[in-house]
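Following the same procedure, sequence and fold were stored together, as reproduced here.

>
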Amino acid sequence: MSNEPASLARLSMSLPAELFRQLDVMVEERGLPSRSQLIAELIRHALAEHEALTRPEDMFAGTVTIVYRGDKGRVRHQLAQTQAEYLKEVISSQHVFLEDDQSMEVLLVQGPAVRLKELCDALRSIRGVNQLQLVTTTALLPPLHEQDELEPGNSPTNKGVAA
């Protein structure tokens, strides 16, 4: 993050009194210094969600959180099979057991919005999945390898060495 102050623009808005009160409670409960910080966070989240819907070919990174119950072996197997169909998009997954015979799985994903939506739809269709939420951001994971590093003779240790 840059140390330079970002240019700011002022926004004035009117809210119903009860919504305003709830906003202040949320600011206080999160320990934020101002309403502006909370509102900016909410707007960033809404913009990322909007961009994923309106620009389906754009790349996004994010998480998919899945809560499921039922025949654990069957559901986990179907979840794994579905993830295998989206190997380019699913970066990693983490599984934990919850109370009341439930499990949670969190996937780190990256890919075109349309592919992430297809992945979520496929996961939702598995019997036993109770909750699923995709949270995206337009910030991407850095590439793990540059293409020129993978070509023969261009390994990082060979760069700049005359043959």
Q: What stands out?
A: The two ends are 41 Å apart (CA to CA). The mean pLDDT is 87. The chain has five helices and four strands. Residues 17-53 form one domain.
